[in-house]
Amino acid sequence: MSLLNLKKSKPLAKPALRSVDAFIDDAILYAQGKHDSISAVPDNANSQISELDNRVVPLRKPKQAKGMRHATFTLTPECIDKLTVLSDETGSSRSALIRQWIQESYKRR
Known about the structure:
Elements: H1 20-31, H2 46-55, H3 77-90, H4 94-108
């Protein structure tokens, strides 16, 4: 046996690409004990698939405020301590205090 025999061979056929919905439908059928894929389901079973679609509730993410992005910057330990004290006194988060300071500085220019 040579090292060429250990070489990984290419797959004979590429797997068929499927949509996310088809994958989810196959997973639902598999969970119900029906191991056939949707592509193997006859056309008269489309009503069963549509019933499955009606029971699935799409998840919706809460809308985020527009324009909010993470920022990375460097502060001295003294600035961090002062910002923490201000945050504790006002009840606002440190990032909210920084945004407020930026707005006020921008208005004054």
